[in-house]
Amino acid sequence: MKHLTISQIQEIIPHRHPFLLIDYIEDYEPGEYAVGYKCATYREEFFAGHFPEEPVMPGVLTVEALAQTGAVAILSKEENKGRIAFFGGINKCKFKGKIIPGDKIRLETRIIKQKGPVGIGEAVASVDGKVVVSAELTFFVQ
C-alpha cells in the first residue's frame, strides 16, 4: 500500500484549505485508483448553514472529494505531474445516505477509461461500509 499525507497530496493536486476535501490517501496506484479519507468534523464551515437544525455535508462537496481523490490517481502519473484535472461531467450520480459531523468518509475513485487528456472514473463514498454517494466522473487533464 502506498500512503500519502496531506503535504504529499498538496504536491499532487492544487486544492488548498478550505477546498481541499481529502485528509489522507490510504492507497493508490498512479493512473489506476486512489482510496482516501475525509474526517467530517462539526467545525467544517458548511455544517453551520447546511442545515443548522440537522448538519449534513452537502452532496456536491462529497462528489468534489471523490473527484479530488481521482485527481490524485491521475495526476500522480509521471507525465501528468504539475498539471490540473478539471471536471468534464458527472453521470449516474446517486445520493444514498447522509454524512454528518463525526463521520469518517472513505473515498474511492477508480480510473476506468482514459484516452488522451480525457478520462472517466468510477467513484464511491462510504461511511461505516455503507455507500452514501456513487458517481461516474469525467475529467480532462490540462
Low-confidence region ranges: none
Whole-number count of domains = 1
Give the count of helical stretches: 2
Q: Strand percentage, roughly?
A: 35-45%
What is the rounded Rg?
14 Å
How does CATH name the architecture? Roll
Main sheet: strand order: 1-2-4-5-6-3
Secondary structure: helix percent: 10-25%
Shape type: globular
Molecular structure report:
This protein has one domain: Thiol Ester Dehydrase, Chain A, CATH 3.10.129. The radius of gyration is 14 Å and the shape is globular. The protein has 142 residues and is of the alpha+beta class.
Record the SSE blueprint.
Elements: H1 6-12, E1 24-29, E2 33-39, H2 59-75, E3 85-95, E4 104-115, E5 118-127, E6 130-141
Antiparallel strand pairs: 1-2, 2-4, 3-6, 4-5, 5-6
Descriptors for this entry?
2 helices; six-stranded antiparallel β-sheet; globular; 17% helix; 41% strand; single chain; Thiol Ester Dehydrase, Chain A; 142 residues; alpha+beta
Short structural summary:
The chain is α+β, with helices and mostly antiparallel strands and 142 residues long. It is 17% helix and 41% strand. The chain has one domain: Thiol Ester Dehydrase, Chain A, CATH 3.10.129.
